[in-house]
Every structure is written in structure tokens, then in C-alpha cells.
User: Fold this.
Amino acid sequence: MAPVVVQAPTVHVSRQASLIDKATREGSEDRKLAARELSAYRNIASVAVLMDVLINDGNDEVRRAAAKSLGEIGDPTAFEALIRSASAEDSEQVRDEAVAAAEHIKRGASEEELYISPKMPPMNTGKEKLGRLLEEVRFGNHEVREDAVKDLDDYRGTQSVCALIDVLINDPEEDIREDAAQSLGKIGDRMALPFLKWAQYNDPDKEVRKNSQKAVEKIYNAIP
Assistant:
């Protein structure tokens, strides 16, 4: 069974909120520095955005910084993303950092807290439309982001799941978080369960909580 996030509800202090924004939207050097600084904020908001950066950022050094920070935070919810990164990553330096981070998390967690999918979903790399959607999720206006979040449920792979997890936890717009929960339920990747469970109980918006609960039930009902 996937681990359940038990951290206290996120309080987006201004510094952390700024770093979350920089980690996905600024130049590569600023993204790398933000990814490293986020290790100081050991909560679900940091884990979610760092998983997105680890899987979806186009710069090796930025992805490596995200892997290192996830290891330092040590949350078991990042374990499978690190394993997936290590298995599919082109950069040897990023692979090594992801492996080291996963091993560090494993040493501090029980078996019940760690989960690896029996069949690892694809990364979905090289799909032109997916790349466009990931860009729109990061940089689009409200309408563009909302449409992209809905369309990502057509891509049942690690890249879309990590992007949607970040949206579910960190997007400031309630309706977009609602759509992210719904898309994660449709994709059905168990890696999203702890984040959906967190949103089910902790998101301030009633509809986000409701959509997250439905997504959790949908994923569990699909488990053989």
C-alpha cells in the first residue's frame, strides 16, 4: 500500500512560495538554487514541486539539485519518483544522485512506508503534445493551465503524474487543483495516492477535497 502523507497542512510562508515558483518558472541557475533551498522546508509542498522538477525539468543540474533535496528532506512519498528517475534518467550524475537519495530515504523508513509499482509506468518522453502541455501547466494563464491539466489525463506516465501532483498541492487556484485531482484519478497511478490523501483531508477547498477523495477511491478500486 502506498504511504500516507501525515505532515501538517502546508503553510506557504512567503519565502517558500517564492522558491516553489522559481523552481519551475525561472532560468536554470535560479531553478537550481531554488531546488536546493527548498530542502529547508520539509513539508508536502516542497516534496511535490521537487518531484515535478526531478522528472520534468530540462536541465541536468536542476534535476540533480532536486534529487539531492528530496534525499535531504527524506520523505518516503518521494521514494518511487526517485526510483523511476534512476531507472530512466539519461544523465549519470542525476541517476547517481537519485539512487543516493532513494537509499537515504530507505534507511530511515519502514517497509510499509515504501512502495514501488509492480509495473513501472512509462516516462512518456518524446511526445510532442505532452511537452507542450507541461509547458502550459507551468507558464500558461488560468484558462490555458486549466485545459492543460485536464488534457494531461491522456498521458498515463510519470511525467504527467508528477506535474499533476505539483498542481494538486501547490497551485493557488481551487478549480485547477480540482481538475488535477480528477486527472490523477483517471490516470490511476498509485504514486499519487499519498498526495491525494493529503488533499482529501487538508486542502482548504471543499471541492478539491471531494475530488481528491473520489480519485483515491477510484485508484483503490482498480487495484487487483
Q: What stands out?
A: The chain is about 65% helix and 0% strand. The CA atoms of residues 141 and 147 lie 10 Å apart. The chain has two domains: 14-113, 128-222.
